[in-house]
Amino acid sequence: MVYQAFYRVYRPQSFAEMSGQQHVKQTLQNALLHNKTTHAYLFSGPRGTGKTSAAKVFAKALNCENGPAKEPCNECPTCISITEGSNTDVIEFDAASNSRVEEMRDIIEKVRFAPSNARFKVYIIDEVHMLSNSAFNALLKTLEEPPSHVVFILATTEPHKLPLTIISRCQRFDFKPITPADITNRMKTVLADTGIESDESALKVIAQAASGGMRDALSMLDQVVSFSGDKITIEDALLVTGSIGEDIFHQLAEALLGKDAGMVLTLLDRLIAEGKDVSRLAEDLITFFRDLLLLRTAPSLKDLLELIPGDERFVEMAQRFEMDTLYLFIDILAKTQQEMRFSNHAKVYIESAFLKMIHLDSPVQVSGGNHAIDPGLTQKVADLERTIMELQQQMSSGGMNKQTAADQSAQPRKNASKSSQGFKVPTGKIHEVLKSATKQDIQTIREEWAGMMQTMQRSHAALLEETEPVAASENAFVLKFKYEIHCLMASENPSLRSGLSDALRSRTGKAYEVVYVPEEGWLSVRGDFIRKNGLAKQQEPESSDEGVPGEEMLSFVKEAEQENADPIVTEAEKIFGKDFIEVHDD
């Protein structure tokens, strides 16, 4: 007789033999007992979780000569023929290879015929998500209102690909991944039937590698049996499945604790040389650190461990890792696993991940407590305490009054603003203009300013909208900007500078050079110039030592006096005249 794989020989033939899926079995059995079966079912879930097996068992229970019953007898001719696949009333249809609408129409045409030797005609459509849109449309009406003797069972691993109109016409059952414990128990049953001995740890390795799929587990078990012979050992299971043993995990963890990069990379290279898949290695490492985290936080829940045993060796190791470190390890490996999916250099990614884990800054344990403190945070606290002490000393010495504090707090903001904007006030050029400034030149520019703005480009005029000429000599003038950012933008625009000079030349006949300055910078430079040249104390027009024209007080000096004058005094002088006003300072 031709050898058959374990997953074919030991396919469940009753609900009792099915592993897991208790919610599915109980619902279907209750419907059979109370004669409340419906016309369409949808079985969805990961591969190898029993969808097709459950469909066949349900078909046998529906048509069993001793039923409908919660379990098929597997002894009557109907049950035997369904098990052998020879019953013409139970039709298995593979949608992956028969996805066209023509095959679906052939089924629909035969639906109306009564079953030949069974109670119901059962159509089991596997991988139903592979059907074309036209095939789904052809099936739609029949699926909604089939003849009373027909039952449809749709099986799929990707239910999101099904049209909602199909899903809404079915009772949906979601099959869940089978737990490692259920997989291990099923493998024990298979090995006991075949007379093969095995280690408990070897079966756990196979169950973990199966990732919740019974078919995958039985296929790997079949492969391990072929490799090892009469007895399955953990070494054989690790070699065949490509998994990692607990000793290697322990050595890797020790190397990470000791920050031994050489040992970590050596162990990694050995695993890859033995044929371990890098992506699988990252997945197993995530599970390993998850197990350590479980031992660190809940040592009593050892039944939830997936990769490592809960013996004293790993319990002690879990206590040596900080919880934050384990969290970071899992995050690094999870990101690495995602990045490896899109690269041909998976080994480089896993090596980089290990080096990141080695060079993580470990928190410092506080003596006499269980709280970890970040060294960087400790330094920040020390700096803050030192700053507070300095401020307290200054306040106690009385050397800092409110005004000084306000000036000191405002000055950094001022400097920060200048540094962030990057504009440097051209103090030397402004002083040169002020030394030879005349009232006639500034009046000429101001009179022509409005007309000149209308002749310039719109973008240039918009940038100069909130500007004012404040001082002018025979060949240059100072243009004050209200906002520093606009001043910076104008200084970086050569076409604006040339356009402004050309526009003034066409209206005044002179080629003026323009000097840009923000309002804040202008007030500072002007005040400094007035103080240096003693212009604020001049009562009669006369020449200063610095060569400033003395025919009349310059316009920028008058403007400065007006800005510094008390507005109440100025208004009183307008009403009563300067001769009748005398100001007394309290």
TrEMBL record:
The reaction(s) this protein catalyses: DNA(n) + a 2'-deoxyribonucleoside 5'-triphosphate = DNA(n+1) + diphosphate
Keyword Mitochondrion: no
Coiled-coil annotated residue ranges, if any: none
Bias-annotated ranges (Polar residues): 395-422
UniProt keyword Transit peptide, yes or no: no
Keywords: ATP-binding, DNA replication, DNA-directed DNA polymerase, Metal-binding, Nucleotide-binding, Nucleotidyltransferase, Transferase, Zinc
Protein's name in the database: DNA-directed DNA polymerase
Organism in which the protein naturally occurs: Sporosarcina psychrophila
Source organism phylogeny: Bacteria, Bacillati, Bacillota, Bacilli, Bacillales
